[in-house]
Amino acid sequence: MGRCLALGERAAAMGKYVNEPIAGLATELSAGLIRLRRGYIDAAESLIQIIDPKQEYPYDFIVYRLTGYRPVRFNEQTEPMIGASVKADLQQLILGVCDSFTLPIEAYAQQVYDLDTLARKLSVTTKTIQRWRKQGLVARRLVFPSGRHRLCFLQSSVDWFVQTCSSRVLRAARFHKITAAERSDMLRRARRIVSFTNCSLNELSRHLAARTGRSVEAIRYTIRRFDTEHPDQAIFPHMGSPLDQPDQDEIYREFIHGVSVGQLARRYRRTRGSIYRVINHSRAQQLLRRPIYYIYSPQFDLPNAEQTILGSESEGTSANAGPPKSIKTLVRKDGGELPAYLRSLYDVPLLGPPTEKLLFRKYNFLKYQADKLRRQIDLNNVRSGDIRRIEDLLVLANVIKNRIIRSNLRLVVSIAKKHLGGPQNLFELISDGNVSLMRAVEKFDYSMGNRFSTYASWAIIHNYARSVPRERHHLDRFSTTQADVLDVAASLAVYDPEQEMYIPELRESIDVILARLSPLERSVLIDHYGLDGHGESKTLDQMGRNMGVSKERVRQIEIKAIKKLRKILNPQRADLMS
User: How far apart are the two ends of the chain, measured CA to CA in Å?
Assistant: First the structure.
């Protein structure tokens, strides 16, 4: 709920709409019949008062509550909207419709307050009133006798808010300005606490709030203002100075490897908010540096492209999921049982042509969307929601890529088997071929009408001709039609098997997934599986001793973390797999 409220409050503060459908609705209502516009305003306020910030609401419900009619051109694919963001958007809608015509204060047969008058009536500051607006107090922009449009509040709106948020209003009314003596005592106590502890500003503010009865915000503001005005006597001398790039990189690295934001705030003597900003800034920088390759299609820019491409459900699969005869023959000659890795390949069904085309289209469209959003990143104003959306798109693209790769691993085995006889054994050849297969997925143009197996076979054999010189003649023996050769050659115009860009991409993908876990869960997985970049793994017993818990407790944490990862990467949840 906190995240939902923050979304709505941030939108209200910026004067922007969160949901595009409501922004469009506001434009339509502002251009409608003038005699109906006041009714839209009053209906919007009534809707604000009943909306639950945690629930989701469909667009047609919003339209019906404001106008009494169902939208004629309603698109059922429109996603439901979070209640907190709807409330913020309705606040904006009310002001927008008010500005579209002349609505005098005499139109309402009740008391009307402007901002200053209401602040005096409730014994609070105007800043508090503005904060209450973000929390549900509805404001209108009405025309006063002087002819000016002014922000004001109806008595009924004020009564509803006071009744709904009575404790908040009473607490604000009891607030009085901090005296010079109180400020001096507060700063003295703050300096003494900081000299003995390595606490952050937030922790210090909470501690003093519990002792003085003041709000955390008031104490935090007082300390920050003092540090700004007296930098030579600052309680947190480093608070105002920006972190240098090495410190920012270290903060992000430690966060990824399990250190909590609270610990980082104490270590670097910063607020939690500033640490989150550093982390989001580092995430944005990584996304901007990371190459995102995709095969563009004009379909990606068509209206409703997302619903058409990602909402597709019709996929066909090939019935031929058994092991090729050549592999069985190889196993019988060796006289041994088929290795577990090779046996597992034949549990994955092959992809039929419709499925293959559909998956490649989804894969490239997801990366196209991620790249499009990435171009809009402003490093001076990084928004965590935008970063997460881009990361989610890339993670979903990797889910599809992995499915394509798994379904074509048999192809690598069949080609690798034909190149036996040199210094490399079968599994070394398979490993080399798998790398070529991964690269081929990146470069394959599904719109040319060829099967991926044709393109991937060429890429794998081409790579073997480089890595196994004596097998170079296999390139000439690769059987295909002239048309296929031309198509494959055209696709390979951008194919560079020597370009090593996949390890950093894999590293970043792992980091993105691990960032969804708690610090403790991240630490356990990184230590146990050697994900710190050094490849050194620890046993459950070793981790337990380091953490001061039992080996079984570490196992439980690991199981919980793995379940979370499976949920994040569940293709059915992502609606991208059949």
Answer: 32
Question: DSSP string of 237-271?
Answer: TTSSSPPPHHHHHHHHHHHHTT--HHHHHHHTT--
Edge-first strand listing for the sheet containing 140-143: 112-114, 149-154, 140-143
Q: Vertex 411, ends 401 and 447: CA angle to 5°?
A: 50
- Which residue in this structure is represented by tokens 């100075």? 241
Per the confidence metrics, is the pTM higher than 0.85? no
Radius of gyration (C-alpha) of the chain in whole angstroms: 31
**Alpha-carbon gap, residue 128 to 124, rounded angstroms:** 6
Give CA–CA dist 205/228, Å, rounded.
17
Spatial contact of 276 and 262, defined as CB atoms under 8 Å apart:
no
Question: Cβ(415)–Cβ(398) under 8 Å?
Answer: no
Handedness of CA 465, 468, 473, 479 (dihedral sign): negative
Asked if 18 and 7 touch (Cβ cutoff 8 Å), the reply is: yes
Q: Tell me how far apart the alpha carbons of residues 331 and 417 are, in angstroms, rounded to a whole number.
A: 11
* Other C-beta atoms lying within 10 Å of the C-beta of residue 293: 12
- How far is Cα of residue 269 from the mean position of the Cα atoms in its chain? 27
Contact 308, 358 (CB under 8 A): no
SS3 575: coil
Q: Tell me whether residue 113 is exposed, middle or buried, using C-beta atoms within 10 angstroms of its C-beta: 0 to 12, 13 to 18, 19 or more.
A: buried
Q: Find all residues with CB under 8 Å of 526, minimum gap 6, and list them.
A: 257, 258, 514, 532
Return per-residue pLDDT of the chain as tens, 578 residues: 444 444 444 444 445 788 989 998 999 999 889 899 999 999 999 999 999 988 999 988 999 999 988 876 655 556 889 999 999 999 999 999 999 999 999 999 999 999 989 988 887 878 888 889 888 899 999 998 888 888 999 999 999 999 988 887 877 766 666 788 888 999 999 888 888 777 778 788 888 888 887 778 788 888 888 888 888 888 887 766 677 888 888 888 888 888 888 888 878 877 778 888 888 888 898 888 888 888 888 889 888 888 888 876 444 444 444 444 444 444 444 445 557 777 777 778 888 889 899 999 999 999 999 999 999 988 888 888 888 899 889 989 999 999 999 899 888 888 888 877 766 777 888 888 888 899 899 989 888 888 898 888 888 888 877 766 544 444 444 444 333 433 333 333 333 334 444 445 455 556 666 777 888 888 888 888 777 666 577 888 888 888 888 888 888 888 888 888 777 665 444 333 33
